Amino acid sequence: MKTAFKSFASDNNAPVHKAVLQAMLQVNEGDTVGYGDDVHTLEAEQKLKDLFGKDAKVFFMLTGTGANAASLAHITRPFHSIICSDKAHLEKDECGAPEKMTGCKLHTIPSADGKIYTEQIKPFLHSRGFQHHSQPRVISITQATELGTVYHPEEIKQIAHFANENDMYLHMDGARLANAAAALNMPMNELAGSSGVDVLSYGATKNGAMSAEAVIFFNSDLAKDFEYSRKQSMQLMSKMRYVSAQFQALHTGELWLENARRANDMARLLAEKVKGIPSVSITQKVETNAVFAILPAKAIEILQRRYFFYIWDNARNEVRWMTAYHTNEKDIEAFVEAVREAVQ
Amino acid sequence: MKTAFKSFASDNNAPVHKAVLQAMLQVNEGDTVGYGDDVHTLEAEQKLKDLFGKDAKVFFMLTGTGANAASLAHITRPFHSIICSDKAHLEKDECGAPEKMTGCKLHTIPSADGKIYTEQIKPFLHSRGFQHHSQPRVISITQATELGTVYHPEEIKQIAHFANENDMYLHMDGARLANAAAALNMPMNELAGSSGVDVLSYGATKNGAMSAEAVIFFNSDLAKDFEYSRKQSMQLMSKMRYVSAQFQALHTGELWLENARRANDMARLLAEKVKGIPSVSITQKVETNAVFAILPAKAIEILQRRYFFYIWDNARNEVRWMTAYHTNEKDIEAFVEAVREAVQ
Amino acid sequence: MKTAFKSFASDNNAPVHKAVLQAMLQVNEGDTVGYGDDVHTLEAEQKLKDLFGKDAKVFFMLTGTGANAASLAHITRPFHSIICSDKAHLEKDECGAPEKMTGCKLHTIPSADGKIYTEQIKPFLHSRGFQHHSQPRVISITQATELGTVYHPEEIKQIAHFANENDMYLHMDGARLANAAAALNMPMNELAGSSGVDVLSYGATKNGAMSAEAVIFFNSDLAKDFEYSRKQSMQLMSKMRYVSAQFQALHTGELWLENARRANDMARLLAEKVKGIPSVSITQKVETNAVFAILPAKAIEILQRRYFFYIWDNARNEVRWMTAYHTNEKDIEAFVEAVREAVQ
Amino acid sequence: MKTAFKSFASDNNAPVHKAVLQAMLQVNEGDTVGYGDDVHTLEAEQKLKDLFGKDAKVFFMLTGTGANAASLAHITRPFHSIICSDKAHLEKDECGAPEKMTGCKLHTIPSADGKIYTEQIKPFLHSRGFQHHSQPRVISITQATELGTVYHPEEIKQIAHFANENDMYLHMDGARLANAAAALNMPMNELAGSSGVDVLSYGATKNGAMSAEAVIFFNSDLAKDFEYSRKQSMQLMSKMRYVSAQFQALHTGELWLENARRANDMARLLAEKVKGIPSVSITQKVETNAVFAILPAKAIEILQRRYFFYIWDNARNEVRWMTAYHTNEKDIEAFVEAVREAVQ
Q1: Which of B14, C6, D102, D162 could be a cystine partner for D73, CB 3.0 to 4.6 Å?
Q2: Hey, are the CB atoms on D79 and B132 less than 8 Å from each other?
Q3: Is residue B181 in some structural domain?
Q4: Domain termination site, one of D204, D219, D250
């Protein structure tokens, strides 16, 4: 049982945004048809279509791992392979759900900053057409990446173009797509459907929701029959209105954007403030809401007595500090002070 | 998009109980470690251990289908078979999640009232030891059954004894275990661990929660490594405190029992009142919160204009009416009146 | 370790036909490219195309279970269901390989003679379009059936038409297709592609080969990428020429037909001869190479001391006697005599 | 359609050894019970027990990929991971069968010579106990490796010790175990069970058989129920006697050893002879029956007009030449001459 006054461990350690809870309370009136055949769900889907395009096919899910694994299973056959960064959530943090659900091989590309490039993907095409080899079918990228960096639209378009030319699909794990959009000051869809993404796992949970994930198909042929994949993947909530309400709240008046901006701003502030501290070095560009830093082992130990956060790479004494929509300047100041003390 | 003033379609059409929502609001304060490593989850697990025995191993899940499929996958190998009623939720209503997740064959037993008996299970043992045949490994029963009937403890014990003698496990789908316990006026565990159940899918969602399911192992050897199965089955919620709060609320002061009793009482009241109506006949014992009835096709059509409920068996003009924790006498009276009018 | 002078247990208890072994010896010369990229395989495929149509897509496999499970997995998604007879090999005798490989639910139809009819399939269509239910996608029939009966072309066409009208595929388990064709005195393809079968598991092993199975797609869109499914299903033989040689031998000069005819003739002879024996009754039409009979339990016991065969239904004292391509009149006479003695 | 007078592409391009075919002919007499319940299979199993220890559990299989994937699936749960070299057959050449059959993640270790070491495996243990990560369960090594190198008994023991200490199993892909044993001049079991291997995929196909693979469990607890895994993995041959006969032939009078020695000798001879040719360099130690060499692109092209072999690494102009049990000195001389000419 780990406790902490303030967690910089993950944006999912944050509470639920009050407006989200309020929306959940509001739909808690009377009977409603289950499994998504209700007016709240229709409205929430419409809000996402307003953002992601009217032809987008939207399916609400329960977990990010569920969104990734179920959507990947839907667009592959087991003899396909999925290409992703070696830092990808679906490679590292889903306990093999992608392999279990898809039956596919995952090919990973070593990535220093969480991003991958077409030049690195090309060699996997050598296995094309040989019956002994898993056939590359999906490229999966994470936006923002697991290292807090972002893909620019041109970068996404280049991968999408490559995927398209080579009979592959582009999947995006958008657990922090909002943060990327806030960082780049662009509409979310500019980084998704408009840049050629075929299927998006869009996560709202880390951005102020309780448990609200979606699979969004831009390539609508791919969406066919996904309702069955969702159910079989155990991701269909019976009292769906409470998921839908979360999406409604976050996508009314751009709350999603405010939340993401705040989280990003606080990470930037944190990075700026710790930069000056001796023996602390920042290891990744701080583009969204994560700060990766190296500091002395002893300092990490002292700091972890007061704050909860993860050691990213034991060998290098590298830690990850994440901010969230509710982090404020005082939190940052107190934390920076604690870092300063720990280092001394 | 189906709408209705009042739904008798399913207990999952009901809203969330106010005390449950209140508990969710109360935990919405500050940061908390994710994925269940928090004090709320510890307390909620303890509450279930108070009910199900201190050695019970409790894992919170997101959907009932997830609880069934993940627990069955955990206690089987793909060459095993699972024996259940032909009315079982896991056979009928989970879009093949059990097959996909376990790789096992499901053997079904025709059941008029939703219950199965050892005499019906015995013939499946003939395949034991033949390498060409899936090997029977799990008997799964539903309590209360999909037809609203209940297993008495002696019945469960008999199946558990048979399972034990034949190197099989007994799984219980307890999506409505609370209703069964209320009907029999017994502690829930009398119908689960104390009667020899090895693994229980315990559902609180239909009894006033929002999305709160659990897998409970009474055979603690079976629980080993289940945390990995849960994660790989995409059933691990990051912001777990909000699931835990639901369990806490329902298991404080026996709210779970009040809710289940109310639902059962209302079904009994409904059954009593429609019994007198000409051309309406009740087809199953009304032991919990479901009423199965046959009425003229024309009457069904008229009634469905005003109320939402499912036709159970088209061929027989049989319908299912379900009550929930929030159904009240006035709801029943109005509905009975509508039935009466529809029949005329 | 069971031994017997003469087995009536299965046509796979027979040795390999001398011409088949001879052909295997003939290809045993020098080096050959592996995995099917050799001239023997090309020629063998051509021989099957001569029988099954020039557009047929032919893939050699190693086991009948492999041919069934891999082909079904290739034409389904895990949320689909497969409809077959409750006597089907893929339901009864493949240790759950279809479920493991496809992830699909198998729906079985009670069948007295091993055959199924569209009227029995129709009710499964009620689940169409409901996200909670596995979606019917394949009808699988066995020709000749596991009970030795045969489908006439009109019967197959009717099922194929029904499948086609309802967006389903028709799969045929043709482990004994040769016997059916011999029985009906028709070309094999009259009972397969020409009658609307989409995918055929064609077995030569029971008809005089050693281990020679094939998946044949008549619907060539379905064949796309099957080479990868075959390899991933562990059915791709490295020294393929030895499988190909078997097919070559059997399909040169209609050896396949001679073999099948002989087996059928011997079963008919057996049936005729035992018919007259008191307390022996034949339970299925003897259309191909199996005789199902009921005889006194004591007689079965006595007979099994001298001959190896299976008890089909213990409860009814029903046995299955199978003949093969090499069974001769003397074998039958001796066996009938033994039956006569056992019964007395 | 590739043809060649003489193939140096793979040892599976060779014909079947005459003694093996002879043994297959010899068992082709009369009826035999199918699926391994026959005297030939019993005898063949005994021969392998003579080599691998009387407690070894032996199961005959049809393909090497089947032996690997089915045995790995049997000793893992889907949330486990399997650690192997990045050159491993199960990573590179089985079209994802391991992932499909096990549901596990494969972790690969970059290997220059095909071998892996405990120091490289250790880092994967960091994921132990975290529910988000696949749990390491099996180390799989290939003997001889895909690069023709061999593990010495001490190296195997070290990995086995490490596996044992860390609650993992050691699997060996022994498709060319005979070649390794011949190279080291040791009994095969010295490199398998006696060195701590838990499960072995033992392949005879590349050593003169037609299609004869086996899974051998040294840890007999692991063997429990494997007959069902074999059947469900579609690896159970009905006419088993013909597989058994192959094993019998190869393990009578040490034919397996003669074959392996001859193949190794010929590779060594080839390596010695090409070493002197300008612009040809050998890239791997020639310990068994493979020679890896770099030569000019133009020379490769010329040589491939006359001989069939694979380019191993296009970027480096590296080729693989394999010898087999039937390669002779004249074959080598002619080939070396051709290399010499091609290079000029």
Answers
A1: D102
A2: no
A3: yes
A4: D250
| Shortest distance, CA B199 to any CA of chain C (angstroms) | 23
Same domain membership, residue D227 and residue D272: no
For residue D87, the domain's CATH number is 3.40.640.10
**How would residue C46 be classed by pLDDT, with cut points 50, 70 and 90?**
very high
pTM: 0.97
Average pLDDT over residues C270-294: 97
Could you tell me which residues come within 8 angstroms of residue B101 by beta carbon, excluding any fewer than 6 positions away? A234, B69, B70, B72, B73, B233
Of B93, B104, B133, the CB nearest to C99: B104
Total domain count for chain D?
Answer: 2
Q: Are residues D91 and D210 in the same domain?
A: yes
pLDDT at B6 (0 to 100) = 86
Q: Quick one: average pLDDT of A136-141?
A: 98
Instruction: Let me know whether B240 and B280 are in one domain.
Output: no
At residue A6, the pLDDT reads 86
Question: Token pair of C46, please?
Answer: 């051509």
Judge: B7–A31 Cβ closer than 8 Å, yes or no: yes
Looking at residue A77, its amino acid is: R
Please indicate if any CB of chain D lies within 8 Å of the CB of A125. Answer: no
Last-in-domain residue among B207, B223, B250: B250
pLDDT tens-digit series, residues A147-202: 999 999 999 999 999 999 999 999 999 999 999 999 999 999 999 999 999 999 99
Cα(B106)–Cα(A53) distance, integer angstroms: 42
Among candidates D96, D133, D314 on the partner chain, residue whose Cβ is nearest the Cβ of A81: D96
Query: Counting beta carbons within 10 angstroms of the beta carbon of residue B339, is it exposed (0 to 12), middle (13 to 18) or buried (19 or more)?
Result: buried
Confidence of residue B5 (pLDDT cuts 50, 70, 90): low
State the SS3 of A168-182. CEEEEEECCHHHHHH
Q: Which domain holds residue B265?
A: 6-13+260-343
Contact status, residue A215 vs residue A59, Cβ threshold 8 Å: yes
Q: Are residues B222 and B277 in the same domain?
A: no
If we measure between CA atoms, which residue out of C190, C200, C171, C159 comes closest to residue C56? C200
Residue A42 is assigned to a structural domain of this protein? yes
Chain D partners (3+ C-beta pairs within 8 A): A, B, C
D106 contact A CB<8A: yes
Residue B255 falls within a domain, yes or no? no
Is residue B127 predicted with pLDDT exceeding 90?
Answer: yes
Compute mean pLDDT per 10 residues along chain D, 344 residues long, and list them. Answer: 70 97 96 95 98 98 98 98 98 98 98 98 96 98 98 98 98 98 98 98 98 96 98 98 98 97 98 95 98 97 96 96 97 97 94
CATH number at residue B336: 3.90.1150.10
Q: What is the CA radius of gyration of chain C?
A: 20
Whether residue D77 is found in the same domain as residue D24:
yes
Q: Distance from B60 to chain A by nearest Cα, in Å?
A: 14
The rounded Cα C280 to chain-centroid distance in angstroms is: 27
Put simply, whether A334 touches B (Cβ < 8 Å) is no
Does any CB of chain C come closer than 8 Å to the CB of residue A78? Answer: yes
Phi-psi region of A142 (alpha: psi -120 to 50; beta: other; left: phi over 0): beta
Cβ–Cβ below 8 Å for A133 and D100: no
Task: Return d(Cα D70, Cα D214) in angstroms, integer.
Answer: 11
Q: Considering the domain boundaries, does residue D154 fall inside one?
A: yes
A112 pLDDT above the threshold of 70 = yes
Burial of B289 from C-beta contacts in 10 A (0-12 / 13-18 / 19+): buried
Is the domain of B86 the same as that of B165?
yes
Distance from CA of D190 to the nearest CA of C (A): 28
CA torsion, ordered B205, B206, B210, B212, to nearest 10 deg: 0
- Is D77 within 8 Å of B132 when comparing Cβ atoms? no
- Domain match, C103 and C209 both: yes
Same domain for B132 and B50? yes
**Distance from the A89 Cα atom to the nearest Cα atom in chain B, whole angstroms:** 13
As a whole number of angstroms, the distance between CA C109 and CA D177 comes to 48
